[in-house]
Amino acid sequence: MRLFASMRSFACASFLCARYKSLSFVNLQQQNEEQAVKLSRKIVSNVDKSGLSLRLYQYQTCPYCCKVRAVLDYFGFSYEVVEVNPVTRSQINFTDYKKVPIVRTPCYEHPLIESSLIISILATYLVKPELSFSDAVELYPKHVSKDAKTGKEVTDWLNKYFVMWGDTKLDDGQMRDVRDEREWREWVDTHFVHLISPNVYRTWSDSLATFRWFEQVGEWERNFPTWERVLAVYVGAAAMWGISKRLKKRFASYCG
Questions:
Q1: 90-121, pLDDT tens digit by residue?
Q2: Between 172-190 and 115-127, two packed helices, what is the crossing angle to 10 degrees?
Q3: Complete domains list, the chain, with CATH
Q4: pTM
Q5: Quick one: CA dihedral 74, 80, 85, 91, positive or negative?
Q6: How does pLDDT run across 190-241, given as a tens digit for each residue?
Q7: What is the rounded distance in angstroms from the CA atom of residue 128 to the CA atom of residue 91?
């Protein structure tokens, strides 16, 4: 019996050691990937007590990224910014998800995606300090369904516009504010942002001028090699010009 117990203990210890080495290797690999990425800038807040060490992968002019930056700045988070090339997207090779914003933190092993989801998770973490960050993320379960028209899988988070107040008591005025905030956040995602593209990419010249402005405010000259910068401007302008035409048909009554 003692021999069996010793063998079992040894096997468990060996498994845990191997598992630890595997996790350590993955974490080290992630750290090396992150260190290899060029930072656009670093925002340091003296009031940040979160300990999250956030890193935001973004396009400077993307409305979804602007939302996340506004929340990070408003609540006083410290964070690093990585400007992503909109065509090559080589800065986010660590994930199969190829949209921005993406937020990473050492406090959670997976990248955070979807701007509204990111905002709700961060807000919940702030209002419920007794939760670990992982616990806050787990309050937003992923829901996978099939699109009735295309048959493709669609991933969503059904409560992504909700800040989880838990047992916190809110008065009638606060409840009204919470509902209004939730409705406006959803309206921005489902309606407002879709009106931007048809109005800023109306023609090829408008689209090209817009991407040249993106190049300027995103500091692409400092962040990307010349060939990537040229590719992003011309390929990006052409792609968005085409996309804007489809969006204009869908939202024709709201586009000038």
A1: 999 999 999 999 999 999 999 999 999 999 99
A2: 160
A3: 37-168 (3.40.30.10), 170-255 (1.20.1050.10)
A4: 0.82
A5: negative
A6: 999 988 988 899 999 999 999 999 999 999 999 999 999 999 999 999 999 9
A7: 32
